[in-house]
Amino acid sequence: MNNVTLYLYFGEEVVDRPLSRVLRDRAAALSFGEEGFDYAETASTEKPRFSRPDGAFFNVTHTENLFLCAIGDCEVGLDAEYFPSELGRREKIAARVFSEDELAALSSLDEEEYKRAFTLLWTKHEAAAKFSGEGLAALLKREEADLVYTDLTPILASLGIPAAATLATRDVVKLTLVLLEDE
Question: What CATH number corresponds to the domain at position 174?
Fold first, then answer.
C-alpha cells in the first residue's frame, strides 16, 4: 500500500501563489528534511514534480485561506473548493465537464444538496486532471475509471472548514494528516 501525507493549512490570510509556495516548501521540508528535496525544472504546461528524492510525488491546491499539499510515494492529484453560496457560471461549465449520469444525479437534488454534490464532483474532476497533468480540458466528459478517489470533505468538516476536497491516486493509499501552523 502506498503512503500519502496530506498537509493542511487553514489560516487567516488568503493563500496566494507566493504563500502557496512557502507552504509547499514547508510540507516538503517536513517530509524530507530541509535539504532533502529539489524540484525538477518543468515547462509551465507540465505537472510540477520533485527531482529528489526519487519516487516522491506531490500536488497542491489552494482556495481562499485553505491550502492542501499531498506528498506521497505514488502519483497524486488534489483539488479543494469552498462550497459556493451561488453556482453562477459553474452550472454552464458542468454541462461541458460532467457526464450525463452525473448531471442526471445532480438534477434530482434540492439546492443545498446540489451545491455540495456539484462541488465534490468538481473537485473529483480537477483532482483527476491534476493527477494526469493533462489539465481539465483533456478530461472533459471522460471518466478516469482507473483512479481511486478519496473524499477528503469529512476531514475538512471535522476541522470546521466548509469545503470539498478530493485526492486522486492509482490505488488505495494510507493517508496521514499533518496540520501546518502559522509561523
Answer: 3.90.470.20
User: Could you tell me the residue range of the domain that residue 168 belongs to?
Assistant: 2-179
Cβ atoms of 139 and 44 within 8 Å: the answer is: no
Overall pTM > 0.85:
yes
The C-alpha angle with vertex 64 and arms to 60 and 65, in degrees rounded to 5, equals: 80
pLDDT tens per residue, range 57-71: 999 999 999 999 999
* 5-18 pLDDT tens trace: 999 999 999 999 99
Q: How far apart are CA 37 and CA 124, in angstroms?
A: 28
